[in-house]
Design a protein that fits this description.
Number of strands: 14
Number of helices: 5
Low-confidence stretches: 1-24
Shape: rod-shaped
Largest sheet: 6 strands, antiparallel, barrel
Oligomer: single chain
Radius of gyration: 55 Å
Distance between the termini: 94 Å
CATH superfamily of the largest domain: Helix Hairpins
CATH class of the largest domain: Mainly Alpha
Strand order of the largest sheet: 1-10-13-12-11-14
Strand content: 15-25%
CATH architecture of the largest domain: Orthogonal Bundle
Number of domains: 3
Mean pLDDT: 85
Structural class: alpha+beta
Order of helices and strands: HEEEEEHHHEEEEEEEEHE
C-alpha cells in the first residue's frame, strides 16, 4: 500500500515537473520585455522633455564659454622727464582717483617756474612803458601841431609886413621923380621890403619844418599806438606770451607728481626710485576692475538673433556656478579677430577649408555685482544670452 502510494506520488511529480520547467523561462522573458519597454518609455520621455526644453527655452538662448573679462585700462606715462624720487604705488595695490603713484624730482621745474615769473614781470613792465611812450608821443604830436599853427601865424605876419613894405616902396618910387622923396627914404623902403621878404621866406621854412616835425611825431605816435592798440597790460601779446610760458612752467612742475586717473588696481609696475624716466615712457597700468566688461566670442550662426540690450547671465570659474552675474549686450564687434590680425588670413587658395568664425560681443556687467564679487582682466566666463527678450 505504501509502496504504491510512493510510486504514484513520484509519477505525479515527474508529470508536473515539465510544466514547471516550461513556466520559469516564460516568466523570465516577460520580465526582460517589461524592462526594455520601461527603458524605451523613459528614453522617449527624456527625449520629449529635452525637445520641449530646447523648443521653449534652449532655442531662445545662445551660450559660449569662449568669453573673457576685459577693461579699458589706463596706461600711466609721465608728461615730463626726470629722476624718480618716490614711487608709493606697487603691483596689485588698489588705488583711488587722485592717489599719488609717482613723484619726479621737481628741482629743475621749480627753477624754470621762477625764471618764467621773472620774464612775466619784465614783460609787464615793458608793456607799461609802451603805454607811457604812447601817451608821450600823443602829447608830442599835439605840441608839434601847435608849433605848426604858430609857424603859420608868423608866416602870415611876415607876409603882411611884406605887403606893407611893397606898398610903401611903390608909393615912394612914384613920388621920387617929383623930388618929394629923398634918396635915403627910397633906399630905406627898399631895405625894409627886402627884410620883410626874407622874413616871409624864413617863416615859410619854419612852417615847413613844423609840418615835417608834426608828421614825424605823428608817425612815432602811430608806432607807439600799434604796440598797445586794443589791449591792456594783461592782454598785450608780449605779456600773454610770457604768461603762457609761466603757465607751462607751472604745469610742468605740477606734472612731476603723477596721480591715478581712475579707481582701479595697479598692474605692470616697472619703475624704481632713482630711475630716470622720459616723457611718454610706460610706467604702470591702472586696471578699473569696478568697470570691467566681458567680450564673448560667439559663432557666426549664434548671432542671428543677438541684439543690443538683451539680458545675459554669466558665471565665472573664479566663483563657480553658484555666483551669477547679470549683464546686457552693449555691442557687436565690427569684425572677427582674424580680420584685424597683423597678418590676415588669405583664403584665395586651392586648398581652402571653411572655418567657422567667431565675433566678439561686448557685455556690460552690473556694477553692484562687480563690487560684491570683483573680477580680474583675462578671467574666463560662461555666457548665456536670452535672445527672446
Amino acid at each position: 500500500m505504501d509502496a504504491r502510494t510512493d510510486t504514484e506520488t513520484a509519477a505525479t511529480a515527474s508529470a508536473a515537473s515539465p510544466e514547471r520547467a516550461g513556466a520559469a523561462p516564460a516568466r523570465g522573458l516577460f520580465t526582460r520585455g517589461r524592462l526594455f519597454a520601461l527603458l524605451g518609455a523613459a528614453v522617449l520621455v527624456v527625449a520629449i522633455v529635452v525637445g520641449l526644453g530646447w523648443l521653449f527655452v534652449g532655442s531662445h538662448h545662445v551660450s559660449t564659454d569662449d568669453a573673457y573679462v576685459n577693461a579699458d585700462v589706463a596706461d600711466i606715462t609721465p608728461l615730463v622727464a626726470g629722476p624718480i624720487i618716490s614711487a608709493p604705488a606697487t603691483d596689485t595695490m588698489p588705488v583711488k582717483k587722485g592717489d599719488v603713484l609717482v613723484v619726479i624730482d621737481p628741482s629743475d621745474y621749480r627753477l624754470a617756474l621762477a625764471q618764467a615769473d621773472a620774464q612775466l614781470g619784465q614783460a609787464e613792465r615793458q608793456v607799461q612803458g609802451d603805454f607811457a611812450t604812447r601817451d608821450m608821443q600823443n602829447a608830442t604830436t599835439a605840441a608839434r601841431a601847435a608849433d605848426v599853427v604858430h609857424a603859420r601865424a608868423q608866416l602870415a605876419s611876415a607876409e603882411a609886413d611884406l605887403t606893407r613894405a611893397e606898398t610903401d616902396l611903390a608909393r615912394r618910387q612914384a613920388l621920387a621923380p617929383k623930388g618929394a622923396v629923398s634918396a635915403d627914404e627910397l633906399t630905406a623902403a627898399q631895405n625894409r621890403m627886402g627884410q620883410t621878404r626874407a622874413a616871409v621866406n624864413a617863416a615859410q621854412a619854419a612852417v615847413a619844418e613844423a609840418v615835417a616835425t608834426q608828421s614825424a611825431a605823428a608817425g612815432q605816435a602811430r608806432a607807439a599806438e600799434a604796440l598797445v592798440a586794443g589791449t591792456s597790460v594783461s592782454t598785450n601779446p608780449a605779456v600773454a606770451l610770457a604768461q603762457a610760458k609761466r603757465d607751462q612752467a607751472a604745469l610742468d612742475l605740477e606734472r612731476t607728481v603723477i596721480r591715478a586717473p581712475i579707481d582701479g588696481v595697479i598692474a605692470k609696475n616697472t619703475i624704481e626710485v632713482g630711475q630716470r624716466v622720459e616723457a611718454g615712457a610706460a610706467l604702470m597700468t591702472v586696471v578699473p576692475i569696478q568697470s570691467a566688461y566681458v567680450d564673448a566670442n560667439f559663432k557666426e550662426e549664434q548671432l542671428r538673433r543677438v541684439r543690443i540690450g538683451q539680458p545675459v547671465i554669466l558665471t565665472s570659474d573664479l566663483y563657480g556656478r553658484g555666483v551669477k552675474f547679470h549683464g546686457r549686450v552693449t555691442g557687436v564687434a565690427g569684425g572677427t579677430g582674424a580680420a584685424f590680425a597683423v597678418i590676415p588670413a588669405q583664403n584665395a587658395t586651392g586648398n581652402w577649408i571653411k572655418v567657422v568664425q567667431r565675433l566678439p560681443v561686448r557685455i556690460a556687467l552690473d556694477p553692484n555685482e562687480l563690487a560684491q564679487h570683483p573680477l580680474r582682466v583675462g578671467l574666463s566666463m560662461n555666457v548665456d544670452i536670452d535672445t527672446d527678450r
